[in-house]
Design a protein that fits this description.
By secondary structure, the chain is α+β, with helices and mostly antiparallel strands. The protein contains 18 helices and 16 strands. Strand 9 and strand 10 form a beta hairpin. Helix 1 packs antiparallel against helix 8 and helix 4 crosses helix 6. The chain starts with 26 loop residues before the first helix and ends with a helix. The structure holds histidyl-adenosine monophosphate. Histidyl-adenosine monophosphate binds next to strand 6, strand 10, strand 11 and helix 14. The site of histidyl-adenosine monophosphate has 23 residues, from strand 6, strand 10, strand 11 and helix 14.
């Protein structure tokens, strides 16, 4: 069907789905710079990159993050992935313990037996677009027996995550995280401090403004439940004064009440018992040592007893970093220790700590404070006229690009005036002018667009000159 034959009302203009967006040049140059800096900085701390699947079994996240969390209870993109019947049938037919049972059966009987077996299997497996990557890293640690290699294992990842949240500035349904996890070995407080030092070094390198680090300890399996009960008992006493969300959380997850931003709940929360006063001796010592290690590294922090984080797997150290220019969604990084998680997922007892940076928010903050200047336009715009010049222009473009310059070569001839206008619009630094004269003499004209200065260069000299201007 030709385009004209499509009725106007049948045409649909597609738009990116709510909460998702396109990242376009020149902004993507900033994303690349940020990611390149992460590769470099994390590399200097001995971390290696891990690339993980975008979707995983729903149960992996449900178990790790916790059923009562916002992420699992209402924000995950989950769908049933139909099991491939042929694949499953082939699997059944090749299982040695089954094969013996097929002896003496004719083809039809065998087909019936497999069919019966297939009917006992679920029709589909539930899968989820990953809302975060810590659970996946732990799954991979177990799957690849990483506990058998040298410990600890230090991994980082960069990529999209998915949460069905209400979109607003700094909050998207597809967003990007830069995260790192350190698994295995000890839970020495120096590990907690070094992980935090690494994020702070990364932010410093990017010149992120208004960075504030909050730290806390939320205790362990021994002391936290006792504190949670105490907190719950106190919350029950003031239940009538709390909002609906907090009232519900008294039952499901009392710690999350401390997260509340509701104005009228603030004076009530201020009077609640604080976890620091209820940590066991080991947790108290661990927390004190983490703070000492941070001081040793010159990392400035502020203690925040209300920092509990929204995911269930945390214990002991938790931290969050905020930055300038982000409004209400100002957490640019969150992390903490999760010593029981690998075990919960069926692996050996393993220590773990890590963080994830919200890359979208990091970029927003850099842009708001003027630190996000995008890469400039082309280095060289080639203005050419005439068939002879065209061949020279193609050759010049090739050698300049090989030398690492970004070059714009117009595909069709244009008058020099128009070409220079184009060069300006693209933000080119130089225009290389190639006409009959230049080709005949072998002396090319280079114009510096900011100053209007012009000079004549041979091909060799031109490359040398541009190298010095890089
Ligand atoms: P999280 O606090 O859920 O932690 O997310 C970390 C960061 O991701 C947040 O501080 C925020 O910057 C960014 N973020 C979260 N949701 C959104 C959204 N909808 N739109 C834009 N940015 C968002 C975790 O994900 C843990 N896995 C971190 C961790 C790693 N803990 C230990 N290891």
């Amino acid at each position: 069907m030709s385009e004209g034959a499509v009725k106007k009302e049948e045409r649909r203009r597609f738009q990116a789905i709510k909460g998702t967006r396109d990242l376009l040049p020149p902004e993507t140059a900033l994303w690349n710079r940020v990611e390149q800096t992460a590769h470099e900085v994390f590399g200097t701390f001995g971390y290696g990159e891990i690339r993980l699947p975008i979707f995983e079994p729903t149960d992996l996240f449900a178990r790790s993050i916790g059923l009562d969390t916002d992420v699992v209870s209402k924000e995950m993109y989950s769908f049933p992935d139909p099991l491939d019947r042929y694949e499953r049938a082939a699997q059944i037919l090749s299982t040695p313990s089954k094969i013996a049972g097929y002896f003496g059966m004719d083809q039809q009987q065998r087909a019936n037996a497999v069919q019966k077996e297939l009917e006992t299997l679920p029709a589909a497996e539930w899968v989820t677009l990953r809302p975060e990557a810590t659970a996946s890293v732990c799954r991979a640690y177990i799957e690849h027996n990483m506990q058998q290699g040298p410990q600890p294992v230090k991994l980082y990842y960069i990529g999209p995550m998915f949460r069905r949240e209400r979109p607003q500035k700094g909050r998207y349904r597809q967003f990007y995280q830069i995260g790192a996890e350190i698994l295995g070995g000890t839970d020495a407080p120096a590990i907690d401090a070094e992980v935090i030092e690494m994020v702070m070094t990364f932010f410093e390198r990017l010149e992120l403004q208004g960075v504030q680090l909050d730290v806390n300890s939320i205790g362990c399996r021994e002391c936290r439940p006792k504190y949670v009960e105490k907190l719950r008992a106190e919350l029950v006493k003031v239940k009538d004064k709390l909002g609906a969300d907090s009232q519900r959380r008294i039952e499901t997850n009392p710690l999350r009440v401390l997260d509340s931003k509701l104005e009228h709940e603030q004076p009530i929360i201020e009077k609640l018992p604080r976890i620091a006063d209820h940590l066991c001796e080991d947790c108290k010592a661990h927390y004190a040592a983490v703070k000492k290690e941070l001081q040793l590294r010159g990392v400035e922090y502020q203690e925040n007893w209300r920092l509990v984080r929204g995911l269930d797997y945390y214990m002991r150290t938790t931290f969050e970093i905020t930055a300038k220019g982000l409004g209400s969604q100002n957490a640019v990084c969150g992390g903490g220790r999760y010593d029981g998680l690998v075990e919960l997922l069926g692996g050996p007892p393993t220590k773990g700590i890590g963080f994830a940076i919200g890359e979208d928010r990091l970029i927003l903050s850099l842009q708001e404070s003027g630190k996000g200047a995008a890469a400039q336009g082309r280095d060289v715009y080639i203005a050419w006229m005439g068939e002879n010049a065209r061949a020279t222009a193609v050759r010049a473009a090739k050698s300049l690009r090989n030398a690492g310059f970004s070059v714009e070569l117009p595909p069709v001839e244009q008058k020099f005036g128009k070409a220079l206008g184009q060069a300006d619009k693209l933000g080119a630094r130089f225009a290389l002018i190639l006409g009959d004269n230049e080709v005949a003499s072998g002396e090319w004209t280079l114009k510096t667009l900011a100053t209007g200065e012009q000079g004549k260069f041979t091909e060799m000299k031109l490359l040398e000159f541009l190298q010095t201007e890089k």
